[in-house]
Design goal:
The chain has seven helices and no strands. By secondary structure, the protein is mostly helical. It has a domain of 53 residues: 434 Repressor (Amino-terminal Domain) (Orthogonal Bundle). The longest helix has 10 residues. 10% of the residues are buried. The model has no long low-confidence stretch (mean pLDDT 78).
Length: 122
């Protein structure tokens, strides 16, 4: 009988490999954050900081297009641009100088009218 007790004390009980993975790691919410990053109390990564909202520069492209009874698609076709680009410009997003030139020409305006249409340059 004495022999059996010593044999069981000498060799620790074996665990299955799936059990090792689940019980051997500590939960991130139990203590300090995991190495290499911050976390919230639930163990998820901290949210990314929000981007600053873009400043939209108001312009007169939409007003001038409507005054000429022109659709966005027609202006885009005449300017050789996409309708999405026309939409973004009308909403006040920035665009390239070449895009502004194409829009001015498609509206039948001269390059001197750019300040009246797009406002002052930065």
């Amino acid at each position: 009988m004495d022999h059996d007790v010593k044999a069981s004390e000498a060799t620790p009980p074996q665990r299955s490999s799936t059990n090792d993975r689940t019980t051997s790691s500590a939960s991130p919410s139990e203590g300090a954050p995991a190495e290499g990053g911050s976390h919230t109390t639930e163990g998820r990564p901290a949210p990314k900081p929000k981007k600053k909202p873009r400043k939209l520069k108001p312009n007169n492209v939409r007003k001038l297009r409507i005054d000429r009874m022109m659709s966005k698609a027609e202006l885009a076709r005449r300017a050789n641009l996409s309708v999405l680009t026309i939409d973004r410009v009308e909403k006040g997003f920035g665009c390239r100088m070449n895009t502004k030139r194409k829009i001015l020409e498609a509206l039948g305006l001269s390059l001197e009218d750019r300040v009246r249409v797009f406002g002052e340059e930065e």
